[in-house]
Known about the structure:
Blueprint: E1 2-5, H1 10-18, H2 31-44, E2 51-54, H3 58-71, E3 75-77, H4 95-101, H5 122-137, E4 145-149, H6 151-158, E5 167-169
Parallel strand pairs: 1-4, 2-3, 2-4
Antiparallel strand pairs: 1-5
Helix pairs in contact: 2-3, 5-6
Pfam families: His_Phos_1
Organism: Neoroseomonas marina
GO molecular function: phosphatase activity
Amino acid sequence: xxxxxxxxxxxxxxxxxxxxxxxxxxxxxxxxxxxxxxxxxxxxxxxxxxxxxxxxxxxxxxxxxxxxxxxxxxxxxxxxxxxxxxxxxxxxxxxxxxxxxxxxxxxxxxxxxxxxxxxxxxxxxxxxxxxxxxxxxxxxxxxxxxxxxxxxxxxxxxxxxxxxxxxxxxxxxxxxxxxxxxxxx
Length: 185
């Protein structure tokens, strides 16, 4: 499968400058983040992608849309690949608000409030990642799946820290990380 970390968000930009939570709920992409999303769409255009799974956060949806449009594929909103709830930015947008902002995306299966009510323990995110890895490994065409997700979920799934807009190929049949070096970025 191909993992894509969302492009730079308003939160990422301010957090990198301030090194503290700037208090933005479900931030959108910055101009650089939109550029990273377009560059990812270009890079992924010839990868044989047949399915796009995306986190329900606005920054992930905005990152996935250029690839979806280019390939003529729908987005499958998949809460299991959401970010680890640890900062204000990890408070999501209600399903009805998402549907209003992204009318081209199907949110009918999403609960109105789909993010956790409080900080998510690292072990819980690692469990979500392990379940997702097993579900993907069971698919015949996992190699043709793009997953647009977040730093914390990619860290739990692979043990690797990736930059905004970075693409990473992962074989779900391969070994899970022995340890996950949790550090806030």
